[in-house]
Amino acid sequence: MAILDILAEVAKTSRWGPVVTGADWNEVTTAFGEPWDVRTMSRSRKWPRLFAYGDLELSVCRCRRIALICIQTWRDVIELPSPAPGELHNFPGAITYQDVTRALDRAGCPWQPDESLTFGDQCALTALPSGATFAFEITHGTEPILNVVGLPGDSHDCSAPTRQTTP
User: Fold this and answer.
1) What pLDDT, in 10s, does the model give residues 66-94?
2) Angle at CA of residue 153, ends 38 and 150, nearest 5°
3) Element (H, E) at 127
4) Of the four listed, 25, 46, 51, 116, which is most buried by Cβ atoms within 10 Å?
5) Cα gap 8→49, rounded to integer Å
6) pTM score, whole prediction
7) By C-alpha distance, which of 101, 64, 33, 44 is closest to 56?
């Protein structure tokens, strides 16, 4: 499958395999294996955490549910997980605005420019079915290049217990 087909499918369905906002973290690790990169998002807290499968980045809440999904596309080679745990697929980077809009149109995925994220050297569009945002870097003399794709978070009210620390 080509990277543009994957991105169009994400834009239409809000998911990449088992990865969807609100998904149980155990389902993701069962499908893809353990992530290759793990970081805390705060020095003072263990959760939420940022996990990565190549260029697929997932923010996971302390309740072990996916809160945010981001696909980094600014690299020369974009790495995304394959259905086989622990394996990556490599795709060429330098995806243009026109590449994305044509792929979305072919997939029957309506979109619109996102004026709220268009400023300076950046422009963006939003896929209407999922709310996925495609942000592009504008460089002089070239067509805008896709920098990142993000799916909206679920903004859930986490009911997982927090650890109380005592001084």
Assistant:
1) 888 999 999 999 998 876 666 788 999 89
2) 75
3) strand 122-127
4) 51
5) 27
6) 0.84
7) 33
